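Encode chain A's predicted structure.
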Amino acid sequence: MAKIDVMIEQPDPYIARLKSLAGADDPLSVLKETPSLLRRLLADLPADVTTRRPQPQKWSISEVLAHLADSEIVFAHRLRLVLSGGQAKLTAFDQDVWAESFRYAQCDAADSLALFSAIRDANLALVARVPREYLARAGTHEEWGTETAAALLQIEAGHDRNHLAQIDRILEVIA
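Encoded structure for chain A:
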């Protein structure tokens, strides 16, 4: 009898890391506090500090904030697809291509933070409005596989923490 190799699907390591960063904390609390954490951080930084890169190929704080704003737009779309039911297909995007194409290096940190905060507030209001059982609805991401709306919230909370830590590391290098 021939041996059949069974490939066991491994979860996407990046998504697993983001879920780990969110941990057991309430993702909605993490998502709610991120804009105010960023506002406090930005209030104390001169504009020239926000545009300094820690290394030539690494993002500045302004670029991180532009990425967060764009990511929140994508998250808003994915969340709405999943919460509305059906067989939501969630597409990927290449953050580095977006950073180059949309010239993150030229984005104003305060403008990016304002956009991020406004969309985040809208996303949190949406989640508060829909019935709790909608959080069990799922969509399939072309790279990560199937995730529920609740898991998307956890992933986004981990994404926030990932980039808050990145900003801390940038400040250690450039300050």
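The longest strand covers residues 138-141.
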